[in-house]
Amino acid sequence: MSHPLFEKHKAQLDQAAQALATRGYWSPYNEMPSPKVYGEAAAEAGKQAFQGYLGKTFELDQPGQTGVQAGERSPYGVDLNVSYPVCDPEALVQAALKALPAWGQLGAEGRTGILMESLQRLNQRSFEIGHAVMMTTGQGWMMAFQAGGPHAQDRGLEAVACAWREQAAIPREAIWEKPQGKNAPLRMQKHFEIVGRGVALVIGCGTFPTWNTYPGVFAALATGNPVIVKPHSNAILPAAITVAVIRRVLAENGIDPNVITLAVTPQRSATQLLATHKDVKSVDFTGSNHFGNWLIENCKQAQVYAELAGVNNVVIESTDAYRAMLKNLAFTLSLYSGQMCTTTQAIIVPAGGIDTDEGHKSFDEVAADLGAAITAFVSDPKVAHAVLGAIQSEDTVRRVDESHRLADVVLASQKLINPEFPDAQVRTPTLLKCDARDEKAYMEERFGPISFVVRVADAQAAMALSERIVQDHGALTAGIYSTRPEVVDAMVRATWRSKVALSINLTGSIFVNQSAAFSDYHGTGGNPSANASYSDSAFVANRFRVVQRRFHI
Fold first, then answer.
1. How far is the first Cα of the chain from the last one, in angstroms, to the nearest whole number?
2. Which of 57, 86, 111, 550 could bridge 190 with an S-S bond, Cβ 3.0-4.6 Å?
């Protein structure tokens, strides 16, 4: 008999599966914070719910609690002072192991129903989560609401639907009958059980604590694995709200809530202990190359899904929409102050310049005009603060302030004062220019609003450099601007070899650093930036095993 929550959400699940198959636009969670969608009182209720956490202890009733920890620093200068339970890592692992059998035996239908109910509940709290994301990451309000709420929920549902599709393809039982000529056939009854790999650890990042975390959380849960969520130390609240919501839905349905727990760890050694624990069988991580590579090298007992640093790049060969191209790139470089794993860093331009609808533009003119487009974009304070947000990390502030030392300055970063949050760290983008041979400047990730216009010999050299950057240093996004089909075709082939997603001639309201759930494949798993694609079957299918039993009939 089907689980009631599976039946409740089956129509939406079918739509999600269809969206995965067709890869067109679809989203069940409205991205606009409209009272017509979420209710007239939703915005104020969400803000009050967020404020209700400030200065208090976030209760989760988890096992092995040894104390509490506070210390989140808001990039907007808001005093958060939320305390979270610190639990013994071994106690969390043992609680997860205890919860595992019943969660696995619930079956794919039951797990899918409970997780879709959890996502619906999370969607209802999108305003609350949006404020939590905004105040811990520095995102502007609209991005925090969208990326922290509905878009993250899209990614969670995408993982659940993909996991359901993979599990539903496996029959629960079969009659095996082999003819034996004149003799009676051999007959066996076979049963196939979907079994999770074991405890899953999901390590969050400080810039996108839900959008980058939900795929691993929901993929692991949907395939029968208990999950321990280890949030970034400066972005705990969005993860804590998420864990609390899922734990409540589990408890309401008679399931041990320790199927999911929150691991707030005061020291990296505690995270390392969890990651290398013999019973932890998968680790999801988004963040620095240093720790990501440590996980890959040391977590031999687990499958590690790692999204690491890269050097995203765009090649400009020619364009028939020069001003629109510049405006698109200016927004790309400004969005959330470049603190996205998909933001362009290297803009590769031939030394002889480019042909445009405004005539030929020299290399220096392209660089100067892009700088002017950025200046124009951030000249309206209201727009600038909404798009730039605030700098999440003091390390990023330092990188921006020191970026003028890396190459010739086209546009220097400016410090802006946000009238609503005067203590916020706000910086406009830095734009630099250099020759391709100056690899020490541009050929490593400079996380934050720092980008380079890179001079190369010609279009062929530009595409070759783009390909080498991706192969050697990784990238999640690449772009090409060209009016020549043969150039576009050559760039397409280059991205096939280097295995990176390509955007072609973006001049409208779609930007290279945006990724849509159910349609875009976020990462390919084919270059150093990511060892998995976070939007395909492989991301979920390796999280469970099929264990069979058979006997004679």
1. 25
2. 550
